[in-house]
Design a protein that fits this description.
The protein has 307 residues and is an all-alpha fold. The chain contains 13 helices and no strands. The longest helix has 28 residues. The protein is globular. The two termini are 23 Å apart.
């Protein structure tokens, strides 16, 4: 593996670590402020950070996709608003769900998008493979051990909300896949966080009653989730994917599920049962299967095709 590839892979792993550790800050933030309030303040921090980063990236390494015409600008805003709407729904459901479930479980349940993306691709007439079906079976088994209570076969409200958020992330990822060849990724990210800021601000005023004292207590959690998880990790993802195969990149970023369990244990002292350990193991198998490249026939071109 070339040095540049190793460096960019390390950046993707760092992004995955930040995302996994951010579940801790989200869990602690949920102790003080409601979901819409946390999402609004987190998004404000993300917008400010990305606004400061964009001019720097333009000078250091221009993307070549900076909007030059009104049509380009319109496409950028359509992309940002579309992705922002579904990211808003997914982020709210995730933040609401993490109030009543553990950080480790939240990380693995969120990672279901790794399996759902190729499955949803079937409905978009994209080719899939038998390994995806096998990955779905492992994921379903993992979800059973992680979420379903053995005594009454019920599912916790928090787990259900996290699963629904995974669907929202799936749609957002598919939209990014559609729009990313046409627009600048970091600028699109800023617009989607602007949309989230607006949506969550309105919802906060309607459904919640934020107070300054609680916001101050959740200050570090809000800053970490907004600056590091939304701002820095996303930028690392953009830079890292430049020199890493998309399939390998997805697999590296899905390590956020593993990091969420580790961080939940280290910082929140969350215990994990043997049943949940089996669920995590099955989810890991599903994630790896969903992202493994298809086998190449002897003599075929050295091309790895995405799901």
């Amino acid at each position: 593996m070339q040095k540049s590839s190793i460096k960019h892979s390390a950046l993707l792993l760092l992004a995955a670590f930040i995302w996994g550790s951010a579940f801790v800050s989200q869990s602690r933030g949920a102790e003080y402020v409601d979901a819409f309030t946390f999402l609004f303040l987190r998004s404000v921090v993300a917008v400010l950070f990305l606004s400061a980063v964009i001019p720097f990236l333009d000078k250091v390494k221009p993307s070549g996709k900076k909007p030059a015409t009104k049509k380009d600008l319109r496409t950028l805003w359509i992309a940002g608003i579309s992705c922002g709407f579904f990211l808003f729904l997914a982020s709210f459901l995730q933040q609401k769900g993490i109030e009543t479930t553990t950080v480790g479980k939240a990380g693995f349940l969120t990672a279901c998008y790794i399996v759902l993306v190729p499955v949803c691709g079937i409905f978009l007439h994209k080719k899939t493979s038998p390994k995806v079906a096998l990955a779905v079976l492992f994921a379903l088994g993992g979800l059973y051990f992680l979420c379903i209570r053995s005594e009454d076969f019920s599912i916790g409200t928090g787990d259900l909300l996290i699963l629904l958020s995974s669907l929202g992330f799936t749609v957002q990822i598919l939209l990014i896949s559609w729009f990313s060849p046409m627009v600048d990724g970091v600028r699109m990210s800023r617009i989607q966080f602007i949309c989230i800021t607006v949506f969550s601000f309105v919802a906060m005023l309607v459904f919640e009653t934020p107070d300054i004292a609680s916001i101050q207590k959740a200050g570090w959690s809000i800053f970490y989730a907004g600056c590091f998880s939304s701002g820095i990790a996303y930028t690392l993802q953009i830079i890292g994917q430049e020199k890493v195969n998309p399939t390998v990149a997805s697999l590296l970023m899905s390590c956020e599920a593993l990091f969420s369990v580790i961080c939940g244990f280290l910082f929140l002292h969350e215990a994990i049962s043997f049943r949940e350990m089996i669920g995590c193991l099955l989810m890991c198998v599903a994630i790896v299967l969903a992202q493994l490249p298809p086998l190449k026939k002897k003599g075929s071109a050295d091309i790895i095709q995405e799901n």
